[in-house]
Amino acid sequence: MTARTVAGIGTVGFAGLGNMGLPMARNLLGAGFAVTGCDLQESRARAFAAAGGTVAATAAEAARGADAVLTMFPGGEDVRRAYLEAGGILDSAAAGALLLDCSTIDVAAAREVAAAAAERGFAMLDAPVSGGVAGAEAGTLTFMVGGDAAAFARAGPLFAAAGKNAIHAGAAGNGQAAKICNNMLLGVSMVGTAEAFLLAEKLGLTTQAFFDVAAVSSGQCWSVSQYCPLPGPVPASPANRGYAPGFAAALMLKDLRLARQAAEECGAATPLGAHAADIYEKMNAEGGGGEDFSAVVNLIRRLRS
Ligand code: NAD
């Protein structure tokens, strides 16, 4: 297929072809962009090549000459290193390239890397996603984006190729801030939902009876009505398939730790967020990190009152 150019973007460098990055890169290829990608693991690079991508040895090499550079790494240190180290992305990207980091990382690191990019004359966006591996595969991710408005507009064709929604949350770092605030709320609401269903059960209600009430009453939330942590009322929820993720508890813990770190750095009180983090720390320490995060209901069931 001949590569196409949309709003000045025809070639894309993509570093980090993991569970999320590989399907995102595939969707960019499917939309007609010429993508050069890399991953530390050879099997990931091979799968990318099989989808029609051009393989590079390093992130810096993938970035060289590209109109836009996307990164999808595990954490903030990976992002800092890939962009900031000598010979890294900021040293190798072409003048005027648009830089997007889609990893979920701490707000401080996102702002540090964006400031370093700006100093070198690059527009950079932090654009973490929600929607999980299924959303990455289906091209239905939501991007939460921090950075300047002109860069957000330039990135539109990339967001459209890999996702369904892109929300501009403000200046650099605000995409990460939006993501961790949302996921802290989700962690708290899932623990609260699990507690309410278990209390209802002890008080003699069936799961379905409490669901029927809560789903149309003021306790209603996504954790109740879309992702019920007990089997039965919501057939698509992970509770009905042995808590296979979905959204793994280890990833929820990562986001709750990031929220706690951000709260400490900016002096915000997040007592329930911190408590939810402790609960997910326990779940992870007991070996439940690979289960869906809604399996926290089973940990709470084992706790003594
Ligand atoms: P992953 O571990 O599967 O993928 C990360 C990839 O980056 C790995 O394949 C690793 O080899 C590669 N990598 C690391 N450093 C590199 C470097 N310097 N150069 C090239 N490749 C490098 O993780 P994932 O599940 O794809 O998640 C990626 C990011 O997306 C994380 O920040 C995660 O928190 C976030 N996220 C994940 C999900 C999910 O459901 N998996 C959902 C939303 C957001």
What does this molecule look like?
This protein is an alpha/beta fold and 305 residues long. Helices cover 50% and strands 13% of the residues. It contains 15 helices and 9 strands. The chain has a 6-stranded parallel β-sheet with strand order 3-2-1-4-5-6, with helices on both faces. A 3-stranded mixed β-sheet has the order 7-8-9. Helix 10 crosses helix 15 (296-302) and helix 13 (249-266) packs antiparallel against helix 14 (271-288). The longest helix is centred in the middle third of the chain and has 29 residues, at 174-202. The radius of gyration is 21 Å and the shape is elongated. Residues 15-21, 38-41, 44, 59, 72-74, 78, 82, 103-104, 129-130, 132-133, 247, 251, 254 line the site of nicotinamide-adenine-dinucleotide.
**Extended strand count:** 9
- Domain count: 2
Q: Roughly how many Å is the radius of gyration?
A: 21 Å
Beta-strand level of the residues, as a percent range?
5-15%
Q: Largest beta sheet, briefly?
A: 6 strands, parallel
Question: Can I get a quick summary?
Answer:
With 305 residues, the chain is an alpha/beta fold. The protein has 2 domains: 11-171, Rossmann fold (3-Layer(aba) Sandwich), CATH 3.40.50.720; 178-303, N-(1-d-carboxylethyl)-l-norvaline Dehydrogenase, domain 2 (Orthogonal Bundle), CATH 1.10.1040. The chain has helices at residues 21-30, 42-50, 59-63, 76-84, 89-92, 107-119, 132-138, 149-154, 156-162, 174-202, 207-214, 222-225, 249-266, 271-288, 296-302, and strands spanning 11-15, 34-38, 54-55, 68-71, 98-101, 123-126, 129-130, 141-146, 163-170.
